[in-house]
Amino acid sequence: MPNLAKPFSLGLFLCLSLWPFFSAADPYSAIIRQAGLIETGSDLQVQARIDYRLSPTAKEALHKGVPLTWVVDINIRKTGRIWDSTLYSREQRYQMQYHALLNQYEVVTPDDEGEMFLSLNAAMNFMANLHDDIRLAADSFQPGQHYYLAIKCRFDREALPVPLRPFAYLDTQWYLSSDWTLWPIQK
What we know:
Strand 1 and strand 2 form a beta hairpin. The protein is 22% helix and 40% strand. With 187 residues, the chain is of the alpha+beta class. Keywords: Signal. InterPro entries: DUF4390.
């Protein structure tokens, strides 16, 4: 009779050692609550609400002066038979940093303008409301075609200081990104 204890223990060891890479960190990830397009005259504007949830590790790093950066990917796509085509694509970068001497939080917007806040909640609420003016005419949508708005919020681990990056890739408390969220465009 073959001894199955050795292969079983090796398989158990591999499963347990790879578990952090396959487990989701849902309590600390960003969540896109709502998104849509608003017509403003002849142009369109993307509006979205994103909930940022910081893990205890990310909060500790923020309070020690480490800036945290998120990139919001915005796409407008037209569905096709084989693949979807992209009508509009843009990235918006937001950076949050705590200034200990001022006891304030700074949020740098995609326009490279800094806004100062007295509390972490106020800074996160400011980042949560996304407004993006699109240089796409409202009449560029063809009747009978299906379009959707795709938004993803990803945490930029490459923007962290170099000594912190390996920990950010291995620790699930640094998985602060969202999944792609798709919203149909009603026309």
